[in-house]
Amino acid sequence: MCCESKRRFLLLYATQKGQAKAIAEEIWQQAGAHGLEADMHCISEMDKYNLETEKDPVVIVISTTGTGEPPDSARKFVKKIQDKTLPPDHFAHLQYGLLGLGDSEYMFFCNGGRTVDRRLQELGAQHFYDTGLADDCVGLELVVDPWIDGLWLALKEALQLQKEKEGMNNAVNAVSNSLSTAPHAVHELKLNSEVQNLKLEDEGARSSHILSQKLYDINLVAPARDTEPSLVHSVPPVSQSALNIPALPPEYIEVEFQDTQGENPHVSSLTSEGRTFEVPVTKAVQLTREDAVKTALLLELDIADTAFEYQPGDAFCVICPNNVSEVEKLLHILGLSEKGDDFVCVKVKQGTKKKGAVRPQHVPERSTLKFILTWCLEIRAIPKKAFLRALVECTSDAGEKRRLQELCSRQGASDYTHFIRDSNVCLLDLLHAFPSCKPSLSLLIEHLPKLQARSYSVSSSNLHQPGRLCFVFNVVEFPAGPSRPVSRKGVCTGWLAELVAPLLHPSKNSQGTKGESSSTEKISIFPRPNNAFHLPADPSVPFIMVGPGTGIAPFIGFLQHRQKLREQHTDWEFGETWLFFGCRHQDRDYLFKQVHHLTSLLDELQCFLKNGTLTHLKVCFSRDSSTAEVAPPKYVQDVLRLCAKEVARVLLKDGGYFYICGDKKHMADDVSDAVVDILSMEMEADKLEAMKILAMLREAKRYLQDVWS
């Protein structure tokens, strides 16, 4: 614990992929410049803090994961405060400010932070500062930066109130009564309060200053005649501005090369998700023609000899490596091409100024250099501003150094968003654009986040195919562009496609699709159960499924499962089922054409229709031309509108469920709008009332989404 004389506050973070931790570390670093000391802990370290007895202000930074859940590191904390036996004044003594991180592309925006915030309020805790909700869809920094700027004034106010309260020991009751409304007054402080513009400088300096460089002091990478900014080139006013740049993050990792040999850890040891399973790929099928816009693959895994369990609608994660050629390029830039197979020891740097410095859990203490870059670090991650700030110190060219400073500065926030964040620029792109930048391996370990396992929806039924698990995916393509010199495939989808490529032998059918193959390749997976996206518990309840493209995958599992249930329980009553499916072209993209030998998806769905498993099937093709007088609907939301009365009946009268799977931005939102229009029309109510009904359906877990952006 920090000394109270240093004006302490408690700083807690709950992170899934490292964003919340990085922001908490930024707050911790800035605190000293304001005469404060942050006692920082991960929210899961409940043995190191105690909110029940906490007297000082508490700052919480928390992200959101999955379909609106708090991050894994906050699970125990949330479970503890959700205890219904806690009295409403349990945290009446607590003053806190909360910063939630989320992505408005997803349904439950910042729900992790909102959940904690709401529960703390219910237990009597008081805000000393407005809650901030940062949106990764438009850029976290748009809220994070001003929220941190305003935090210091609010903290000092709260600490002053606390000091006055503690100094009046002879009149505790009177003081507590007189201050009962004070936290509310502080809560009313707005983020646009007049606070001194924060000016940070390099580690070790005591006074604030602004980093100033005149245009004529530097050599810009692009010719002066260029009037448009780019990743490597800026224009006024940024190019002529004095810059507010972040503090230089302290170094805390050192890497030692060793002469000894040994074995690398197993990849399963890199995850904290519990048990992992190494399973063989027993089938690989290309579902789309060669001339389709996207390449869709289906893989079948053999889980018969494992304890892996799932339900239709569940997801699971694949542990994947970085691209081999990208790792080789990175080793070359680092000047370590000849040392990729050498063992290194990673440990905390002695005498580091980083508080609570520990070796990242996702990096083994001892392994080969190539293992770290292949399996441990997300080398495709979009560099955070703190990383850019550290890269400045590794850059020798003055023009490149200035541009990196601009990109991590307040003045260059728009350029950062446009040329790095929105362009999905990664470390390799930066090192290509700024060739004089030569970072160390230790810097990469300090700043690159953990290589995350990738999540996929199950597209099979354990009743229909015991011991088998199927999943479908599009091979993601990132085309070359101004900030990306080469095209790339998705980290996991590209790896999986390459893994099974030798097994996809051309078939002899006229469509030119690829056939099935057996495989001995193995991949490591672990379960990621979905608590809501399952078939209704009551089989008599009707449901609607909307799944264009590969979004149909979990619904194939739904229907296979339902068919088996119908065969096993002939005396049960089963509700009606609707499926709305769409793709670009009927002849190129109609998925599952080779899943069951020569059976197309249409044939399989027609089979479900024939035996009564599927009651209604609606299909559309968005890119096919039509000669009909009345053009057919192009998108699933258009088909839904044509079935408005039936959709409204299922949802409003029959108590049915509505499932959506697929692209969030370009489909799920449009489907949601269509449902609102349908409810409004059929209820003869305004849109606001229809939106309330939809919100109630979501709350009741009857309107469910499994979407991605």
TrEMBL record:
* EC number(s) given by UniProt: 1.16.1.8
Keyword Endoplasmic reticulum in record: no
PROSITE patterns (UniProt xref):
FAD_FR, FLAVODOXIN_LIKE
Please provide, alphabetically and separated by semicolons, the GO molecular function terms listed in this UniProt record. [methionine synthase] reductase (NADPH) activity; flavin adenine dinucleotide binding; FMN binding
Q: Where is the signal peptide?
A: none
Q: Does the keyword NADP apply?
A: yes
Top enzyme class:
oxidoreductase
Q: GO CC terms for this protein?
A: cytosol
* Keyword set, alphabetical order: Amino-acid biosynthesis, Cytoplasm, FAD, Flavoprotein, FMN, Methionine biosynthesis, NADP, Oxidoreductase, Phosphoprotein, S-adenosyl-L-methionine
- Give the multimer and partner information: Forms a multiprotein complex with MMACHC, MMADHC and MTR.
Tell me which PANTHER family the record gives: METHIONINE SYNTHASE REDUCTASE, NITRIC OXIDE SYNTHASE-RELATED
Q: Per its record, how is this protein called by name?
A: Methionine synthase reductase
Q: What organism does the record attribute this protein to?
A: Setophaga kirtlandii (Kirtland's warbler)
